[in-house]
Amino acid sequence: MDFLRTEELLGRLSSIVEHPLYEDSPRVTLSATLAVTSMQFAAGVRVLCGESLVLPASSALRSQFEALVRAVWALHRATDNQISRLSAELTRETQQASKNIPLVNEMLLELEKFPQLANLLISLREFKDSSWVPLNSYVHAGIHAIHWTDKRPPPELIDQVFRISNGLVLLGFQHIGILTGRPGIQSEIIAATACYSSCLPNRREDI
Fold first, then answer.
1. CA distances, 103 to each of 69, 100, 153 (Å)
2. S-S: 73 plus which of 102, 107, 113, 135, CB 3.0-4.6 Å?
3. pLDDT tens, residue by residue, 139-176
4. Domain count, the chain
């Protein structure tokens, strides 16, 4: 796991998106907050991978993914009422009121109604289709969690979790780039990743 190059990449991406949001509406603000939430989970993944703790790292990876999906959903699909409920100050009452927010499957289905999100949804669906079952097993102490409690996880597995998390971080930075409204920022973000293959998932070969 290339921690040094990862931190270098994250620093470069942070400097690229370090601009005000294109508006300070509750919707855009919540979407940006959720993207940062996703990145905080990613920071936890990196720490846990460094300790070879694949169970909690994988659980944090699931939360990272869900926060990222919710960031995109909040921007494009959430109702004003849902935005209000998720943005409220935390109390016992608002905690109860924030229930019944769509789960990942529902959010992804709703996002499929937006043609401009097609490329992003390919990446999100690819992650979910390949990883969701084992990640849920980790979260709920299922067979994957039991197996890797009894057996030392191979370095390849931990490196895979590390790289996947970094790939989701990249998507998070791209989303924040959108929220700045700055032309050309996506090209800057992609260009910045060109020499960081050691810490990102292998590029998908187009069929």
1. 10, 8, 30
2. 107
3. 999 999 999 999 999 999 999 999 999 999 999 999 99
4. 1
